[in-house]
Known about the structure:
Blueprint: H1 2-73, H2 77-91, E1 94-99, E2 104-107, H3 120-126, E3 132-137, H4 141-148, E4 156-165, E5 168-178, H5 180-230, H6 245-294, H7 300-332, E6 340-343, H8 344-361, E7 365-370, E8 375-378, H9 380-396, E9 403-411, E10 414-421, H10 428-431, H11 443-448, H12 455-465, E11 469-475, E12 479-487
Parallel strand pairs: 7-9
Antiparallel strand pairs: 1-2, 1-5, 3-4, 4-5, 6-8, 9-10, 10-12, 11-12
Helix pairs in contact: 1-2, 1-5, 5-6, 6-7, 7-12, 8-9, 9-12
The structure holds adenosine-5'-diphosphate and magnesium ion (MG).
Amino acid sequence: MVTISRIRTKRFFEASSIRWKILLAFFVIVGLSFAVAATNLTGLVRDYLFEQRTREDSLLTEKAALAVAPFFDAADPEKINQTLKENAQAMDGRLMLIDQDGKVQYDTLLDMSGHRLQLQEVLQVLNGTAEQAYGIHSPGEKDAARMGGSEYSGQLAYSVHAMDGEDGQIGALLFVSRIQSLMDSLGTVQWQLISVFVLIAIAALVLALFLSQILTKPITEMSRSMRKMGKGDLSVRVPVRGSGELRELAENYNTMAAQLERLDKTRNQFVSNASHELKTPLTTMKIMLETVMYQPDMPEELRREFMQDMNHEIDRLTGIVTDLLTLTRMDGDKNGMKQEAVDMSALTEEVIHMLTPAAEKRGQQLEGSIEPGLHMMGDRARLNQILYNLTDNAIKYSPDGGKITVSLREEQEKLVWRVRDNGVGIPAEDQEHIFERFYRVDKARSRETGGTGLGLSIVKQLVTMHGGEITVHSEPNRGSEFKVVFPRGGAAE
Length: 493
Ligand SMILES: Nc1ncnc2c1ncn2[C@@H]1O[C@H](COP(=O)(O)OP(=O)(O)O)[C@@H](O)[C@H]1O
Ligand SMILES: [Mg+2]
């Protein structure tokens, strides 16, 4: 219980960690770029609006200054007043005419006349540093009302332009305009932009959630089926979808699962085959034993025959167990193989010598055609088992009086060992199976000759362990030829 819940929690954190990473990355990228875009865009809009306002105000101020300058030069108060009033009305603001001493001479709102203005823009123009100046101010409440007019408390823009008379500069014209409404609309634009971007960010978040879900789903699915497999269900597969790495992962996973399943099946089959093979002689023996036991007055002759048969069954059992042990030992111990120089010519002679009595017993001719002195790297005992099993089969599956030829020669740097017989042969459809464990073409015949059906699978495995290859050519009723090709360096090559 504890482990299960721990695994679950861990999996949840792991799966969600990828998800959260994707989510965070997506959100940071989208959010950040939109924040930057929003700042830039509002800045741009503000600059544009300000610039337009500045240019407009400056132009109008310049025009008014040009219009009023000649009257100021000529000291014509009536004309000055009229010109200023008309312009101020058209410009929707307040105009003040300031002399070279910085004193307000005329003011369209009248109340500043005779005052001295300490405005930076005015001073700049009066002392000749600039022909015109522009500035935006957030004055205090008192100054706002004083400069902007009664009850005004917002921001103000000051546009100043020089006035020239016949003998040079004679003063400056100040245009005071209320720009609070402009600032307000700027604020509105800014807010609108921000809300649009917030909306986009929320959409991005939702999209990221969605995306991370899609991206992590195959991984979650895969780990779910892996967990199932861990519990013993080897038939589960993950769905292969989409493309790219995840698809490849799913495919590889499925390949591995199929391989495992196949392995599991082969093993189960092997175990059941082995049990069956062991059971048959045991059953036979039990029947024979019981017959002997419950028939005390059985003729001595018959009793001996039963004993002999039982002995034969025991031999068979021993043979199967020995072969099984050989197989399992090879499975577990592939590195325990010796690497020694083996004289294959001598070994082949030896095997022929060992099996000659068996062949002679059946009137068969066992011949060798062996190139002398051929060596290879390998495990002598195991190489011996290969040659022995194959030659033994040739004898077993050939009729009395048959002919068996064993040959060894070197071809293209490789050792080629062959055994040919003129025996029963192997049907084409059986040829691909004879190297499987317990596979026999003719069960009854194999049993008669004491075979276990494991010989060729052992041979195949040993040949592979030596880096070699085994092939069979056979025609039913005409004979077979088994051919083994070994690299001279053995498994190392
Ligand atoms: N030289 C051969 N000629 C005909 N059939 C053969 C020959 N060698 C092997 N076989 C077939 O392949 C089967 C498997 O061989 P093997 O694994 O050695 O088992 P067995 O113990 O039956 O000899 C044999 O049962 C036989 O049917
Ligand atoms: Mg055999």
